[in-house]
Design a protein that fits this description.
This protein is α/β, with parallel strands linked by helices. The chain has 6 helices and 8 strands, in the order ββαβαβααβαβββα.
């Protein structure tokens, strides 16, 4: 488990990475997170052992649809429904899944062919959550800072030209 902290809205959060060797068990990792008084945790998949360990802790959880599924989910509502039924329904609401993130920093690579699939996948996941009555779970996608063409001063921030109109604009439009 790799822990990196973030503080949003006064609530400390933890990114729970699982790449490495000799990692603690999910139960031990959740104990460490609780000892840090973290109120939010992001995991980079929907690991059932971690979701089970987070049950009844009061910690808000962000889970991810893996990058390799984004393209298929973008064109297949049945797959989106199956993923939600397998990875969210069995754990919610005992595990406080607050966000479902579609992929991880998919727009960072300029050679990435997944860009056109992000927004359709987000819409299909949102539809699946609604189908299962999971209206409180919000849908998003993590973006790295390299999506910005200009970042300073923040008031003049702009997205890169290659994604501004084709990805970011549709991502921000048409959400209930």
């Amino acid at each position: 488990m790799t822990l990196s902290g973030a503080k949003i809205s006064g609530l400390p959060g933890v990114n729970y990475g699982q790449l490495g060797n000799n990692l603690p068990t999910p139960t031990t990792s959740v104990s460490l997170i609780k000892n840090l008084n973290a109120k939010r945790v992001k995991i980079y998949d929907a690991n059932p052992q971690i979701l089970k360990a987070l049950e009844n802790t009061g910690i808000q959880v962000s889970i991810m649809l893996p990058n390799e599924l984004v393209t298929n989910v973008s064109s297949n509502q049945t797959l989106a429904n199956q993923w939600i039924q397998s990875n969210v329904v069995p754990f919610y609401p005992k595990t406080l899944i607050r966000y479902l993130l579609v992929g991880n920093e998919l727009i960072s690579s300029t050679t990435n062919q997944t860009w056109p699939h992000i927004v359709p996948a987000m819409h299909r996941i949102k539809h699946s959550l609604t189908t299962f009555g999971l209206h409180k779970i919000k849908v998003g996608t993590p973006l790295a800072m390299d999506v910005l063409q200009t970042s300073f001063p923040p008031s003049n921030g702009t997205f890169r030209n290659d994604i501004a109109l084709s990805v970011i604009k549709p991502m921000l439009e048409n959400w209930d």
